[in-house]
Amino acid sequence: MADFVQNGVIGTLHNLRSRTTEDLEADLHEWSSQTPMALVLPSLYSELEGPALERIIDKLTQATYVNEIIIGLDRANASQFEHAKKFFSRLPQRHVILWNDGPRLREVDRLLSEQDLAPSEPGKGRNVWYCMGYFLASGKSEAVALHDCDIVTYERDMLARLFYPVVHPQFNYVFCKGYYYRAAQGRLNGRVVRLLVAPLIRAMQITLGDNDYLDYMGSFRYPLAGEFSMKAEVVPSLRIPSDWGLEIGTLSEMYRNYSHHRICQVDIADAYDHKHQDLSAEDAAKGLNRMCIDICKALIRKLAVNGVVFSPELLRTLKACYYRTALDLVDHYYNDAVMSGLTLDRHREEATVELFGQGLMQAGEAFLNKPHDAPFIASWSRAISAMPDVFEMILNAVRNDQGDA
């Protein structure tokens, strides 16, 4: 049974099981004429060959309230791009594919690099940034949602519930974050949220004392969810990280730009599963190991921007507090899993906590050694100021790649 508790500084919209997907979609259809909606799908080419994206496209063909779908395609050569055009062709909505590895968009990237404005590394952050640039350039929609392309449990109501808060004409939200719980094949998942983000935010609150930013971040039930929606007005000034800190960085940007009552989270799924990253305990440049370090860097940088002075002593205290807090939570997770008929390996959980504690120290040391690093991709407002014709360049590149020129 869904709860109805509002116990954070942002609004939580629950699924109280009193409306059908069709009912929600009927409202969205009605509002779509005044608030056209776009969906961004950041995708690797390899995801076209897996089971999740095929199911997602099947479901999206029925989401006819969506005005346009913007697909960011990474790691695709020319023949793979042609296959992608056929793969997505059954979508009834207006849709485009940004071939991010193609020569035309690569040329746009090169020109932006000359102005120190292009994303510094490949990945989801870069993909999303260019998709958002196309969204602004096309000017066809007033709201945009984003979700991953590896959701094996995808259902239509995920998208309907994600859009609903930001397009309802009487709601005041400009940004909405999806949340859910992670479990599959009899196991409790979501290791990075459970074992890193939740206990780390609690440890920071204990260590640093009263802090509005930490109260805000602690209000999100699944801060690493890749599903969110926003009004078009939010996008031009949004600065996002190019690394694994994308979701934390986006939430931090919303904290910087908007008051809490303009931001909400919504329950979008009873069960959610997607591909799982390896822990990569032996390699800090890969998997959950790197994700941990990037997320810790994002939190530390934001706190530093807000006036927190980090030192080696503070980091050691924070790490000790995190470790104890995380181990206490493992007890709760274990009991929760047992009562729900799920399995949870306490040894692996505690070993993961130890690894994440090391990652926290690595992130802190990296910040102290290079406090002036600029982790964010430039906002599109800045990019337009430096290159006033960049939107036209993106539109032309995508149009020519699609064969519409």
Characterization of this structure:
One of its GO terms (molecular function) is glycosyltransferase activity. Keywords: Glycosyltransferase, Transferase. This is Glucosyl-3-phosphoglycerate synthase. It comes from Thalassoglobus neptunius. The protein contains 14 helices and ten strands. With 405 residues, the protein is α/β, with parallel strands linked by helices. It has an eight-stranded mixed sheet, sandwiched between helices. The protein has a two-stranded antiparallel sheet with strand order 7-8. Strand 3 (66-74), helix 3 (78-87) and strand 4 (94-99) form a beta-alpha-beta unit. The chain is globular. The protein starts with 10 loop residues before the first strand and ends with a helix.
Q: Gap between N and C termini, in Å?
A: 53 Å
Can you list the strand order of the major beta sheet?
A: 1-10-6-9-5-2-3-4
Please estimate the helix content: 40-55%
Low-confidence stretches: none
| Fraction of residues in β-strands | 5-15%
From the helix content, strand content and strand pairing, which structural class follows?
alpha/beta
Mean pLDDT: 92
Radius of gyration: 21 Å
Principal-axis shape: globular
Q: Report the total helices.
A: 14
